[in-house]
Design brief:
There is one protein chain. By secondary structure, this protein is of the alpha/beta class. The protein has two domains: 5-198, 2-enoyl-CoA Hydratase, Chain A, domain 1 (Alpha-Beta Complex); 202-248, Lyase 2-enoyl-coa Hydratase, Chain  A, domain 2 (Orthogonal Bundle). The chain has eleven helices and ten strands. It has helices spanning 29-44, 66-70, 74-93, 109-116, 143-151, 153-162, 168-174, 186-198, 202-215, 220-235, 238-248; strands at 5-10, 13-18, 50-55, 59-61, 98-102, 105-107, 119-123, 127-129, 166-167, 179-181. α1 links the parallel β2 (13-18) and β3. α5 (143-151) packs across α6 (153-162). 40% of the residues are buried. The structure holds acetoacetyl-coenzyme A (CAA). Residues 23-24, 26, 62-67, 84, 105, 107-109, 112, 131-132, 135, 137, 139-141, 143 line the site of acetoacetyl-coenzyme A.
Length: 258
């Protein structure tokens, strides 16, 4: 079903593993299509509570596919960027948390893919970067915008204009990764975070994601109003009654996702 990724669901977690070894998991059109189908499945499959996205081999994803882009004219290049943006936006809009377990090279479109996820756990071997200016282009799958929002305007320019690579530990210091761990601890750490999130009220987790993502692009007043709407959605859930009653009865809540 998939050409360049592996998809597995285990105990509520969907594992999406980028697997295109001959090109260090680079995002060609076929791979972007695979990602679109995989994340669509994550949205509609109720068994899936959290997604972990990682890469096989020494790369998370080494970028958009340079060999494919090399042949594109301006109009085709534009369509390719639209496709990349659509996939990144799809991940951001997924009503379930997505954790990137960044195992190695996360360059160009790979860095952008990790930034479209909600949380990035980096291996000490991870290498983030936006090397596009080496190729005569700029980050085109949302990197100029998402990197700026994560590390600030000055640092985003410092990284992008110099095509500066950032190792895992430094990525954590900059806020480009939320944690950085030894390579052997990468998947256990991502799974621990996933399981912690899964123990919380699913509607509340999903509403927190949308409130943060949508609110970050709004002015404070509108964002505050939006937060109230997200909170109202939580208040109308059965899980709000269950969570508060369980607290008062000094017992663990049993979530219904309703
Ligand atoms: N696109 C297509 N093929 C790629 C690729 C990419 N982004 N990255 C690596 N590959 C291919 C190489 O061409 C090579 O193929 P062959 O064996 O057929 O020659 C294979 O993967 C292995 O790569 P290397 O031999 O280069 O491996 P290395 O270990 O020596 O170097 C690397 C690893 C530093 C990641 C290096 O491969 C590299 O610099 N890759 C390109 C990184 C890059 O510039 N990414 C940004 C792409 S542009 C972009 O993403 C635009 C956007 O925002 C949308």
């Amino acid at each position: 079903m998939y050409n360049n990724l592996k998809f597995e669901v285990k105990e509520g977690i969907a594992y999406i593993t980028m697997s295109r070894p001959k090109a260090l998991n680079a995002l060609n059109t076929e791979t972007l299509n695979d990602l679109h189908v995989a994340f669509h499945e994550c949205q509609k499959n109720d068994e899936i509570k959290v997604v972990i996205l990682t890469g096989e081999g020494k790369a998370f994803v080494a970028g958009a596919d340079i060999a494919e882009m090399c042949k594109l004219n301006a109009q085709e290049g534009r369509a390719y960027m639209y496709k990349g943006h659509a996939v990144m936006n799809q991940i951001e809009a997924l009503q379930k948390p997505v954790i990137a377990a960044v195992n190695g090279y996360a360059l160009g479109g790979g860095c952008e893919l990790s930034m479209a996820c909600d949380i990035r756990i980096a291996s000490e071997n991870a290498l983030f970067g936006q090397p596009e200016v080496n190729l005569g282009i700029i980050p085109g799958f949302g990197g100029t915008q998402r990197l700026t929002r994560l590390v600030g305007k000055g640092m985003a320019k410092y990284i992008i204009m110099q095509a500066k690579n950032i190792k895992g530990p430094e990525a954590k210091q900059l806020g480009l990764a939320e944690d950085c761990v030894a390579p052997e601890d990468l998947m256990p750490t991502a799974e621990k975070v996933a399981r912690t999130i899964m123990s919380k009220a699913p509607i509340a987790v999903a509403q927190a994601k949308v409130a943060i993502n949508v609110g970050a692009d709004l002015d404070m007043k509108t964002a505050s109003q939006f937060e109230i709407e997200c909170m109202s959605t939580c208040f109308s859930s059965e899980d709000k009654a269950e969570g508060m009653t369980a607290f008062l009865e000094k017992r663990d809540a049993v979530w219904k996702n309703k």
